[in-house]
Sequence to fold (259 residues):
Amino acid sequence: MVAEARMTTRRVGRTFAIACRLLPRSVRDDVYLLYLVFRTLDDCVDFGEPDADARVAAVEAWCHGGAASTRETLVLARLDDRYGLPRDTMLSFCRGMRDDLECVPILTEEDLDRYCYRVAGTVGLTMTALLGIREPAETQAAALGMAMQRTNIIRDIDEDRAKGRVYIAAETLQRFGLPLPGRREALLRDQIARADALYDEGVAGIAKLRRGRRAVACAAAMYREILRQIEREGYGLFEGRTVVPRTRKLLVAARTSVV
Fold:
């Protein structure tokens, strides 16, 4: 399963895969496995797999003390034995999956923050169990995950719209209008500023990690570069997903300093 986890990360999480190479060997494979769990559940929900509800329910049951009965819960049980995973946090992640399954509307920026916390802030929090913290860093870990999720939403506006999905808050759309190509600079400036504030908060907590500080710092810097690429390309002048070239990612990673 570790081999599959590595391949999955390299195939669908290319930026994360680059950062993972900087992790200590003692924890690297476990991070791959944790990513596999989160990614598998998210993809099941995102692609409307018929067993998505059951697989999320199995994780919820395990969090409440039930037996490990699925591939995801077996991996979580293995990691829990080694690190003591925060089960309340995992339940919040599952709540985010159910938000998607139930098509819960995102009406306000507060709704969007809550959603980003559930589906990504929880990932940052769970990751601290594997990497360890020297002092409280829960708020910063959640903020970094939320920043990355907001980056995903900004980057994937056109792809999501084509699938009939809208993750920009309704109140924000009312304020700035529909995010159509060439007519969304004001909206993107607003959303990028919100994401950058979360990155600032999240990056400030990296120094509190016991392990993997450089890997996390590089992941944050490379992901944040998506926002800079959107700015360089004129704030959505053209339709499509913004992509940071691999050479640019590597340069950003090389220039990233770690406290």
User: Anything to note?
Assistant: The chain has 13 helices and no strands. The two ends are 34 Å apart (CA to CA). The domain at 2-255 is CATH 1.10.600.10 (Farnesyl Diphosphate Synthase). Residues 109-131 form the longest helix (23 residues).
